[in-house]
Amino acid sequence: MCSSRVLTAVLEEATPSREVGLRDNTIELYWIVRSGFPILAIAALMRETTLEIRDVDRLIVNRRTLRRREKNQRALSVEESERVLRLARTFDDVYSYFDDFNSADSWVRRKSRFLQGVSPLDAATTEIGQKLVSSMLINSRHGFAV
Q1: What is the pLDDT of residue 101?
Q2: Containing domain of residue 56, as a range?
Q3: Alpha-carbon distance 101 to 115, whole Å?
Q4: Pick from 10, 76, 69: which is nearest to 37 by CA?
Q5: How far are the Cα atoms of 118, 133, 141 from residue 111, in angstroms, in the given order?
Q6: What is the pLDDT of residues 36-79, one digit of tens each?
Q7: What does the alpha-carbon distance between residue 129 and residue 124 come to, in Å, rounded to a whole number?
Q8: What Å distances lie between residue 68 and 43, 62, 72, CA to CA?
Q9: Banded pLDDT at 115 (limits 50, 70, 90)
Q10: How many domains does the chain have?
Q11: Quick check: is 118 in a domain?
């Protein structure tokens, strides 16, 4: 599996007119997030992962706000855009670790003792949580129990 498939799909929706190489630039990505991802970035995230609308409602933005933004053709907030970005990166990490999507989905949703009863999916909505999830995968890859 491509290790950045989810992130690539999200950024293609967020920046359809930009060259792919520019999206890899941290400064460029900063300004893309600051301007707010379009609603279509959530659609791309859902299409490339196992996220459902109830997950989006709980992890990124509530449904009423999402519908209102769609109706008014408004972008996601900076915070919501950051959550989409973090979740895309997390799913890329998880999908590159596991051999199949079912195992990946099961793992990302299962509550973790390492995360004190929080699932990796829930943890990944914050920057430090995403780093913890990445550490879990790295430690597991090297044979450490997590």
Answers
A1: 86
A2: 5-141
A3: 22
A4: 76
A5: 5, 12, 19
A6: 999 999 999 999 999 999 999 999 999 999 999 999 999 999 99
A7: 5
A8: 15, 10, 6
A9: very high
A10: 1
A11: yes
Question: Is 121:109 a contact under the CB 8 Å cutoff?
Answer: yes
Amino acid at 57: D
Asked if the structure places residue 44 within a domain, the reply is yes
How buried is 114 (Cβ within 10 angstroms: 0-12 exposed, 13-18 middle, 19+ buried)?
Answer: middle
- Phi then psi dihedrals of residue 118, to 5 deg: -100, 145
Share above pLDDT 90 across residues of the chain, in percent, rounded to a whole number = 73
Q: Which residue has the tokens 């791309």?
A: 44
Pairwise CA distance, residues 137 & 22, whole Å: 28
Tokens describing residue 131: 């780093």
**For residue 93, is it within any domain?**
yes
Decide if 146 is inside a domain: no
